[in-house]
UniProtKB/TrEMBL annotation:
Keyword GTP-binding listed: no
Identification of the protein by name: Aminobenzoyl-glutamate transport protein
A Pfam match: ABG_transport
Residue numbers spanned by region Disordered: 243-284
UniProt key word Protein transport: no
Biased composition (Gly residues): 260-272
Length: 552
């Protein structure tokens, strides 16, 4: 064997060894709830040290100097005790995320969102199957983690039906959902969540800053189309030609695999998760990975789209169109009460301030219309039932929100955030680096941390209080910093073994390549993710450099 051949042979082993180290380190991180409890304790100790050192911050535009205050004083303890409930109740993302998820729960549980994802892929012309699969995955975050459950087996089945490599189809679907999670043509619950956390962080410097779920909307739409098309090209021209074909006895091998579940994503299972949905996603992963080796005919049945479902989609689309016309009629005309009461502008306006309620009503109405057509909604009592079922999945988020709300409130009260922002801004100004360079470094930082912190909300809650104020002080708007976070956080999703759906994708990959391991999956996802990272970042930097608005 030549030296070159030997090096090629050794690469997978070295990669697997390196990934094992990453996985081991990441698995040692505590649950996000415990992580923020520990960080809060460390924050209290740090505040005492910095306050004793007499550190202060002079925020530009303010006359008063902001001192660092210690939580380990009578005043600090009173604040921590008496304001705990207020901190939680007034946590900006709390009310909006619950309101939006009430509507999404109906659209999801009625079957509208899963059916929409299936139709997007199954009805595409043969040559557009890969772009359709990638686009459905990128926009699938509107269905939250359910997009993984629907599209990973669907991608494998569609590729197999077309005589293509089903392992590539499963991996392509996994990457499209994960690496494109924060880009979509739809407004999602993630948009609401990120805007709320960003507002809390921006308030450290400028409480008047109020971002909405639409603050990155134009950028998200263009990003969704561009990265989906780019990823499709890489799948067709790089990943599939180099991927090992399934063995001829693959079907026989799969028939001998052991496992429980239907593979449709409806299993319950048990498990834990490190992202915002915690044990819920762990349970989903448990059920799905059990069903990965189930009967292929069950996959086919799950992917079928009936006539009633198509009629339901048609009725939902017409209803959505009617709602959009209605919204335009009550928002756009001069003198509308939903315009800004002072100057009559559209942005900002009461309509955008209430966008969470608008999204709630939109998802609720189209979900009900679809459910009435297909029979998943038969009586008025079914609607609150679907809402309750959907809200079960938010319980882990509420627990996480409670500790995050305390951490952010303490961080602001101590003045450490202001001190870091002012000091960090001074360092950045001394470097003289242009805004695009700082934003690029932000994308890289978020990406690296995303490999070990798989919860987007936890990571942004940790980074936003530092990055947003600091970059504000050097002239970088909060919506730009939030957009930079979207890129780094999304692309990391499909490369980290700590993601619960990494195991799901690996399970499907092993159906067709029994010897496949973590290194195998990474070798297939890496070309797609790397290309998406480069293209998406280049788009963002060009967008910002040209001064194009990121959203409304």
């Amino acid at each position: 064997m030549s030296a070159t051949e030997q090096a090629v042979t050794e690469r997978p082993t070295r990669l697997a060894r390196a990934l094992t180290v990453v996985e081991r380190v990441g698995n040692r991180l505590p649950d996000p709830v415990i992580l923020f409890v520990v960080l809060s304790v460390l924050l209290a100790g740090l505040s005492a040290v910095l306050a004793a050192a007499g550190l202060t911050a002079q925020i530009p535009g303010e006359d008063q100097v902001t001192p660092v205050r210690s939580l380990l004083t009578g005043e600090g303890l009173r604040f921590a005790l008496t304001e705990a409930v207020t901190n939680f109740v007034e946590f900006p993302p709390l009310g909006t995320i619950i309101a939006v998820l009430l509507g999404i729960a109906v659209a999801d549980r009625s079957g509208l969102l899963p059916t929409l994802l299936r139709v997007t892929v199954l009805r595409a012309p043969r040559r557009l199957v890969t772009p359709a699969l990638m686009f459905a995955g990128v926009c699938g975050s509107v269905a939250s983690d359910a997009a993984y459950i629907v599209l990973i087996p669907l991608g494998a089945m569609v590729f197999r039906t077309l005589g293509r490599n089903p392992a590539v189809g499963a991996v392509a679907a996994f990457v499209s959902v994960g690496a494109g999670y924060d880009a979509s043509i739809f407004v999602t619950a993630t948009d609401v969540l990120l805007a709320g956390i960003t507002n809390s962080a921006a308030a450290i410097i400028d409480p008047s800053i109020q971002l909405t779920a639409l603050s990155n909307y134009w950028f998200s739409i263009v990003s969704a189309v561009l990265i989906a098309l780019t990823a499709a090209v890489v799948v067709d021209r790089v990943v599939e030609p180099t991927a090992v074909r399934p063995s001829p006895d693959g079907d026989t091998d799969r028939g001998r695999d052991e496992g429980t579940g239907t593979g449709t994503g409806t299993d319950t299972g048990t498990g834990t998760g490190t992202d915002a949905t915690g044990g819920v996603t762990g349970g989903v992963t448990g059920g799905v990975t059990g069903g990965v080796t189930g009967d292929e005919t069950a996959e086919a049945r799950a992917a079928e789209v009936t006539g009633a479902q198509l009629r339901g989609l048609r009725d939902a689309a017409l209803t959505l169109l009617g709602l959009l016309v209605f919204y335009a009629a009550i928002w756009l005309p001069q003198g509308s009460p939903l315009r800004d009461p002072d100057d009559g502008s559209l942005v900002p306006s009461p309509f955008l301030d209430g966008i969470a309620v608008v999204l709630l009503l939109t998802f609720l109405v189209v979900g009900i219309v679809y459910g009435l057509r297909v029979g998943t909604v038969r009586t008025p009592a079914d609607v609150p039932r679907l809402m309750r079922e959907g809200l079960v999945e938010i319980v882990p988020i509420l627990v996480l929100f409670f500790v995050i709300a305390q951490f952010l409130a303490w961080f602001t009260w101590t003045g450490i955030g202001q001190w870091i922002a002012v000091s960090g801004a001074a360092v950045l100004q001394s470097l003289g680096a242009p805004g695009p360079v700082l934003l690029f470094l932000t994308v890289v930082l978020v990406f690296v941390l995303g490999l070990v912190i798989t919860s987007g909300s936890a990571q942004w809650s940790l980074l936003a209080p530092v990055l947003v104020p600091m970059l504000l002080l050097v002239g970088i708007d909060a919506d730009q910093t939030m957009a930079a976070f979207r890129i780094g956080d999304s692309v990391a999703n499909s490369l980290t073994p700590m993601s619960p759906y990494f195991a799901v994708a690996l399970g499907f990959l092993q159906r067709y390549r029994r010897e496949a391991g973590i290194g195998t999956l990474i070798s297939m996802t890496l070309p797609i993710c790397a290309t998406m990272f480069v293209v998406w970042t280049a788009l963002f930097l060009a967008w910002v450099s040209l001064g194009i608005p990121l959203g409304i």
